[in-house]
Amino acid sequence: MDAHALEPIAIVGMGCRFPGSANSPSKLWELLRSPRDLAQRIPKQRWNLDKFYHPTGSHHGTTNVTESYFLDEQDDIRHFDTKFFGVGTAEAEAMDPQHRMLLEVVYEAMEHGGFTLSSLQNSDTAVYVGMMCTDYNITLGLDSTFIPQYTATGVSPSNASSRISYYFNWHGPSMTIDTAADFLDRSVVIGSSSVLISSTSMKMAMGPVTNPLTGTVSPCVMPSGS
């Protein structure tokens, strides 16, 4: 076996979004060091819990859940910087929040790793995104008379990864992986394998990979929590 195939993979940069203001690796670490219950009552800007609550969970059209886990106001995806990412307002409104969040966190992961936009432009950086929820697509389709113009591309799971490659001008493989509950594991395994394969004498149709990027998103934006 090629010695390179046994070489360990290094994680050089990270970005994240978690409840409890854990929007950076250092804040996530502090949360892990000092765990606390982050559950909070469902805020009214999500939906009016008083109107939908029923103690019996099987009661039609209601919920018996009163608490959940939410990102802080500072991490609200409605603050997405359209100008910075070169996205028009109309297009941004149709973009799945997962797509917007990925662009933000990928940029932060680059900063965390000490990379600049120019340092990786035109590189063979690969993107592997694990994603399984399509809540936003369902939400936009609830009223067919007001479906945004860019919905088709805005909610497409495949675009979650290709948007990143396009914006950062990366030319390595780019794919969105949906294997249900283990999409995180699959994304990491495929991303790690691509690094090892790229440095062997094997010629891959997808081309060499020098900097694989692995990301996962799985937020719930529908009142049903589906």
Feature tags:
alpha/beta, Thiolase-like, Peroxisomal Thiolase, Chain A, domain 1, 5 strands, three-stranded parallel beta sheet, 226 residues, two-stranded antiparallel ribbon
Structural summary, described in words:
This is Type I polyketide synthase AVES 4. Pfam families: ketoacyl-synt. Residues 6-226 form the Ketosynthase family 3 (KS3) domain. One of its GO terms (biological process) is secondary metabolite biosynthetic process. Keywords: Phosphopantetheine, Phosphoprotein, Transferase. This protein has 226 residues and is of the alpha/beta class. It has a single domain (3-17, 72-217), classed as 3-Layer(aba) Sandwich (Peroxisomal Thiolase, Chain A, domain 1), CATH 3.40.47. The protein is built from nine helices and five strands. The strands form two sheets. A three-stranded parallel β-sheet has the order 4-3-5, sandwiched between helices. It is globular, with a radius of gyration of 20 Å.
Secondary structure class reads: alpha/beta
Tally of structural domains? 1
Strand order of the largest sheet: 4-3-5
| Total DSSP E strands | 5
Query: What oligomeric state do the depicted chains represent?
Result: single chain
Q: Tell me the β content.
A: 5-15%
Find the CATH topology: Peroxisomal Thiolase, Chain A, domain 1
H-E order: HEHEHHHEHHHEHE
In the CATH classification, which architecture applies? Answer: 3-Layer(aba) Sandwich
Total DSSP helices: 9
Reading off the top of the CATH hierarchy, the class is best stated as: Alpha Beta
Largest sheet: 3 strands, parallel
Shape: globular
User: What portion of residues is helical?
Assistant: 25-40%
**Intertermini distance:** 45 Å
Low-confidence stretches: 199-212
- The Cα radius of gyration reads 20 Å
Mean pLDDT over all positions:
82
Q: Identify the CATH homologous superfamily.
A: Thiolase/Chalcone synthase
Pfam families: ketoacyl-synt
GO biological process, one term: secondary metabolite biosynthetic process
Protein name: Type I polyketide synthase AVES 4
Keywords: Phosphopantetheine, Phosphoprotein, Transferase
